[in-house]
Description:
Number of strands: 3
Largest sheet: 3 strands, antiparallel
Shape: flat
Number of helices: 1
Keywords: Transferase
Protein name: Methionyl-tRNA formyltransferase
Radius of gyration: 17 Å
Structural class: alpha+beta
GO molecular function, one term: transferase activity
Strand order of the largest sheet: 1-2-3
Order of helices and strands: HEEE
Organism: Jeotgalibacillus soli
Distance between the termini: 31 Å
Number of domains: 1
Amino acid sequence: MLSHLAPIFLTHPTPPYISKVKEVRLLKNNHVLLRTIVAIVPPGKKDLNPELNAHQTLVVVRNDN
């Protein structure tokens, strides 16, 4: 997969990637809900483009080991 993606990143600069944690909520003893928003600053721009934002929700489970 890396060999397939490497040429893309040679010709397309990777924009700054910004993330913000919106919520961390304990669901039960070993389960946590994490909500974030992630965004990029488009090339040649100084501000985030809200149309490119992604909302992510993760459930994290802690195991004994």
